[in-house]
User: Which sequence fits this backbone?
């Protein structure tokens, strides 16, 4: 769900235009419209406002990126449908849309008595800490997942390369001072050739010792017993006949299986802890983000409309199919605020340090997108 957070001055012309906007919206259903309550904050000096404006712009980008990353991982770690992820993305017990539309400034967490710069720094510190911890936790999660995937991949694939721990048991292998068991992969079309030739690969092969242990749609795994002194010759003759002799060390195979089991346990435990952390910190960062948007509205309203502070913050939820029409309506109604903004672009000669040129309107407008939790988007 997309919202437009607007700020309009309360001069006579703008108030009349605002009333006309409300009537137009009511008739045409271009959007839903409501007020957003922003408390009176400390203004400070013009230089301070300009500095805070730059900080808030950069912090807005950082905060939104952290929210998106936590959402992405929440969907990945939970491995659930979109509606299940949404259920776990509640903020103060309500969904994101309701939190935004019913927004109330949290004076306990963000005291209005603090200077704007301090409020911005506090949010920056909070979001940066979450971002740093997220990177650490995500790295651990990805490391375990990657190791598990690597080991599981070894247990998959064809019989020429996959692990044999789930196919061969210790009882299948005869090992003594003089005798050993080799495992040979034979294509299904070559079974008869194997049965008629394997004893000829060496004088030291135990007659009639070959036994099929496993087969899939392409190959079979056969065991064969021979004297240890003949292993090298047998391997060479088998290779010449296009049979693949597989190395099978049961201790290694068992350790491999135990490692998979351990990583599976670690992965499940890590997932539980990570999901809990993601839910808590997504909520905290989202709350900080909406307060940050409110801060930006206040600061830009003072910079754009001047003192004394007099503006109305509106929350529009546009009809996605009629966004262009709504923009045109807003541009027409509020072109008196800054006629040059009708081009909707920042003029190239306008020096905005470290800011990318972006859409610019005669009225103040910030977008809030609550779709980030929808894994189907």
Assistant:
């Amino acid at each position: 769900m997309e919202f437009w957070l607007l700020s309009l001055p309360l001069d006579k012309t703008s108030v009349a235009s605002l009333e006309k906007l409300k009537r137009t919206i009511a008739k045409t259903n271009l959007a839903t419209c409501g007020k957003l309550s922003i408390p009176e904050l400390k203004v400070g000096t013009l230089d301070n406002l300009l500095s805070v404006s730059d900080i808030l712009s950069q912090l807005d980008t950082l905060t939104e990126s952290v929210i998106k990353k936590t959402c992405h991982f929440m969907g990945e770690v939970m491995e659930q449908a979109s509606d299940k992820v949404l259920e776990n993305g509640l903020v103060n017990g309500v969904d994101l849309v309701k939190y935004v539309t019913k927004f109330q400034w949290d004076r306990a967490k963000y005291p209005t008595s603090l200077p704007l710069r301090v409020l911005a720094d506090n949010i920056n510190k909070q979001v940066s800490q979450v971002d740093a911890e997220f990177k650490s936790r995500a790295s651990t999660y990805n490391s375990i997942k990657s190791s598990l995937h690597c080991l599981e991949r070894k247990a998959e694939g064809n019989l020429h390369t996959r692990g044999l721990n789930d196919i061969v048991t210790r009882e299948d292998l005869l090992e003594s001072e003089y005798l050993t068991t080799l495992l040979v992969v034979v294509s299904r079309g070559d079974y008869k050739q194997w049965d008629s030739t394997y004893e000829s690969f060496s004088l030291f092969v135990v007659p009639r010792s070959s036994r099929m242990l496993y087969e899939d749609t392409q190959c079979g795994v056969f065991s064969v017993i021979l004297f240890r002194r003949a292993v090298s010759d047998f391997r060479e003759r088998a290779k010449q006949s296009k049979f693949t002799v597989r190395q099978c060390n049961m201790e290694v195979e068992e350790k491999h299986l135990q490692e998979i089991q351990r990583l599976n346990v670690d992965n499940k435990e890590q997932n539980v802890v990570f999901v809990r952390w993601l839910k808590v910190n997504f909520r905290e960062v989202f709350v900080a983000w909406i307060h940050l948007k409110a801060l930006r509205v206040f600061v830009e309203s003072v910079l754009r409309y001047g003192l004394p502070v007099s503006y109305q913050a509106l929350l529009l939820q546009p009809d996605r199919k009629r966004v262009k029409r709504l923009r045109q309506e807003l541009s027409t109604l509020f072109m008196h605020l800054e006629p040059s903004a009708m081009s909707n672009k920042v003029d190239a000669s306008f020096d905005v340090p470290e800011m990318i040129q972006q859409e610019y309107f005669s009225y103040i407008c910030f977008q809030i997108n609550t779709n980030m939790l929808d894994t189907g988007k």
